[in-house]
Amino acid sequence: MPEAILEASGLVKHYPLTRGVLFKKQIGAVRAVDGVDFALGRGETLGIVGESGCGKSTVARMLVNLERPTAGSIKYKGEDITRLSGRALKAVRRNIQMVFQDPYTSLNPRMTVGDIIGEPYEIHPEAAPKGDRRKKVQELLDVVGLNPEYINRYPHQFSGGQRQRIGIARGLALRPEIIVADEPVSALDVSVQAQVINLLDRLQDDFDLSYVFIAHDLSIVRHISDRVGVMYLGRIVETGRDAEIYDHPTHPYTQALLSAVPVPDPEAREHRERIILHGDVPSPANIPSGCRFRTRCWKARERCALEVPLLAVPAGFRYDTGPAVHASACHFAEAVSVT
Amino acid sequence: MLLEVRDLHVEFRTRDGIAKAVNGVTFGVDAGETLAVLGESGSGKSVTAQAVLGILDTPPGRITGGEIQFQGQDLLKLKEQERRRIRGARMAMIFQDALSALNPVLSVGAQLSEMFTVHRGMSKKDAKAKAVELMDRVRIPAAAARAGDYPHQFSGGMRQRIMIAMAMALEPALIIADEPTTALDVTVQAQVMDLLAELRRELGMGLILITHDLGVVADVADRIAVMYAGRIIESAPVHDIYKAPAHPYTKGLLASIPRLDQKGQGLYAIQGLPPNLMAIPPGCAFHPRCPMAQDICRAEEPPPAEVDADRGSACFYWRETLDA
């Protein structure tokens, strides 16, 4: 991996559950993120996949400091940004920007596109002198493939895909080094999705960006990511390079997830083996003991209830080499090809 | 043929003008067959389904032409009273968003048993027993205990099972499922699609699956109809269309989705945007986005061409598209 530009370790976010009005008593916690470690290399794309409620969006919000972690650290070029405040925090935020999922609610309907994309300059006036801003915004519109003359239009005059381009332009305005994209294409139609993915690909090369790309769609994550982390109930359960995860998954959850993705090839439906998981994801307020996946896992044994599996290369693979050797939080990890 | 839709036209009158949502759609579904209607938002797939079921909002919607033959009857000639008797009993719908499709102030057991008291004239007690039996059949754990629960007390996947149970309740001949798994996570989607396919087989029903997901289609459909700007632009058995699409739009769609089993180098992207339904381009509606468009495409609407005995494509250059 290239030099790490962003490093999260032991990241935790618990939301307290309280009872009572006057004498609030904490009766538990929603453990949305429960110990997440990863590193993002410069110029690299780290994909984080998981189903709803796994904590992936909370991770994204912590990375851009919209949420303060309960514990753990996020180091940007060696500096822990969770402890910063005031001017120092503002300086860091310039370099870590976010692209949101829903292009309908993340753009203020009463602002023109020019004002939306130019707003970061209001907050960081040093990034562009006042007289230059309009020109900069027009350049940004051009960069994301929109007509620079649209600068005075309002968000409702654009389609979903175009709005997402506006959101991306806003994210680029301050020339950040890192972009955290939370489900940036999942609200878009298939034919438009490809346009936006290609745009993100191109911008990464042009502006030397590092991406944290969060999505539930495994195919899109594979397409765009260099490395992938699979999240389940607040933890990363398996992580590795894209081929390691997709072609040689060793964690049962990853295997089930991959096998459940419908493949656009009708010939595959006869010979593809499906792992159908039973039941629903447990509540993050009530996480199972030991391995958190054990309640839905077909391999679960007594040990899984007692001992928390660590995210590391499984003991059984210690003397092996090859793509199956990567970090997987399972006591009984084995490489199975499911795609 | 169980259902035959011929030359259906639907439009919406809005303040800004007339939106032509469905412009001459023709298709059929056999008993026991799964037809996937594939399209992006605004392609007219859901409106077609609503017209078939007779739940179109009128006004602003209006069926301006065509016929819908279902089990030998032209549905468009029936009175609302008669159509209501068909809905639920012989033809049923599964909606995308179960939370808004189910009544939030009635327990799911009550909503399910209503099907039997209204359509079958059962006593409340018998209907309740039937409701529990159905919930059991769609594999809701502890069905008897949960019949008194309200929709918000169930998870998304469980709610969608209840929707399925409701649609299957009276064993209709045809089920229309509008994006039944779009709101669900992939592991839950797999459970629900499995259940739907299994029940469909058991009861021998026809299924119209409305979706934008090419993966789901490949998994369950027998035939596929691709819609664009209110028209079916290609229809074919599912194996043929994935192997060799005969319309540039279908071809573009297939090329533009990232694959799980391989790392692509850059996706093919269809240029431009789907058309505004108030101003559909003349000629072939796809021509402004089509890499193969010629003068004729801008001037004339391509008639459906017979690619094979059971395959059609509304493209002047379907041969070239097939071969390319």
Automatic annotation (TrEMBL), chain A:
Membrane-crossing residues? none
Protein family membership: Belongs to the ABC transporter superfamily.
Q: Which GO terms describe its biological process?
A: peptide transport; transmembrane transport
Q: Top-down, what is the taxonomic lineage of the species of origin? A: Bacteria, Bacillati, Actinomycetota, Actinomycetes, Kitasatosporales
Name of the protein described by the UniProt record: Dipeptide ABC transporter ATP-binding protein
This protein's record includes keyword Nucleus? no
Which residues does UniProt call coiled coil?
A: none
Instruction: Supply the Gene3D superfamilies for this chain.
Output: P-loop containing nucleotide triphosphate hydrolases (3.40.50.300)
Under the heading InterPro entries, the entry gives: AAA+_ATPase, ABC_transp_ATP-bind, ABC_transporter-like_ATP-bd, ABC_transporter-like_CS, Oligopep_ABC_C, P-loop_NTPase
Please provide the record's keywords in A-Z order: ATP-binding, Nucleotide-binding, Transport
**Which Gene Ontology MF annotations are present?**
ATP binding; ATP hydrolysis activity
Domain ABC transporter intervals = 12-258
Automatic annotation (TrEMBL), chain B:
Q: Per the annotation, which location comes first and is thus the protein's main one?
A: membrane
Q: Which UniProt keywords apply?
A: ATP-binding, Cell membrane, Membrane, Nucleotide-binding, Transport
Give the location in the cell.
Answer: Cell membrane
How does the record say this protein sits in the membrane?
A: Peripheral membrane protein
Provide the family line: Belongs to the ABC transporter superfamily.
* NCBIfam families, sorted: oligo_HPY (TIGR01727)
* Protein name per the record: ABC transporter ATP-binding protein
